[in-house]
Amino acid sequence: xxxxxxxxxxxxxxxxxxxxxxxxxxxxxxxxxxxxxxxxxxxxxxxxxxxxxxxxxxxxxxxxxxxxxxxxxxxxxxxxxxxxxxxxxxxxxxxxxxxxxxxxxxxxxxxxxxxxxxxxxxxxxxxxxxxxxxxxxxxxxxxxxxxxxxxxxxxxxxxxxxxxxxxxxxxxxxxxxxxxxxxxxxxxxxxxxxxxxxxxxxxxxxxxxxxxxxxxxxxxxxxxxxxxxxxxxxxxxxxxxxxxxxxxxxxxxxxxxxxxxxxxxxxxxxxxxxxxxxxxxxxxxxxxxxxxxxxxxxxxxxxxxxxxxxxxxxxxxxxxxxxxxxxxxxxx
Length: 332
Hints:
Layout: E1 2-7, H1 14-24, H2 27-30, E2 31-32, E3 35-36, E4 38-41, H3 48-58, E5 67-74, H4 82-96, E6 102-107, E7 114-120, H5 134-150, H6 170-178, H7 181-194, H8 200-209, E8 213-215, E9 224-226, E10 232-234, H9 245-258, H10 271-286, H11 304-314
Antiparallel strand pairs: 1-5, 2-3, 4-6, 5-7, 6-7, 8-9, 9-10
Helix pairs in contact: 4-5, 7-8, 9-10
């Protein structure tokens, strides 16, 4: 199966574009026997950077977003050659970015084959700018699955969607009466943003795509979320310690240390359960690196009083974690 992921590019400049092109084109990463697995769509691989820059200059669009970077990763279980991986990447670029210059580089130096896509932000056909949203990423993944299926490759099962409410439960009814349903939407947005975030910056970007503002500052104890409807909510008011600032910081340390694959399924108990299971191994692995300053494992305040307050405020006993949906528990 092949997964498709957007790589968050925090810095957008001509220098950053050059850097990502040089990185994905490295000889040691793309050489397989006598083949150099670098292709170009609407451009020549050897001159892709120059062509992208000339396109920006021709249409006088040299500012703002310079490029988009995506990764298409294939499973070790699929019987596929590096050449086929590169050909599938070219096919994907043709379907999803028909009017843009795309550099496709297949990397063979890791445990799994994967394609890097560097897409120019300006169309070489008419000069329009490329914009990407969460819905675009979902469409890319749908097309990716379709191409993989056509090549007899396995695909990921469809994500479990949070279905529209077919019947209003007592908990939902009480939440609606109190006007708290916006908080459930916020919790859901945070969970979805965390599926594709490996650090604070990418998490904030994901939330902003969904219309939420995030105030996360080093000198403030709490994260403050501002919803599209203007309501504000602290992390401590979400009735789930998973979303506390110190625990999200710990999550991102854990993901950076262990290697994070976006959109992977979390265990039933959520990422904190996974972290607890592997925490001592992470400590052992990183103990040799003196530069790492690991925070202490999370402490829990799961007292009866806290549970009563959470139930009173939210009229339900569910803790939201991982990829779980709204599984409303018993109401008061």
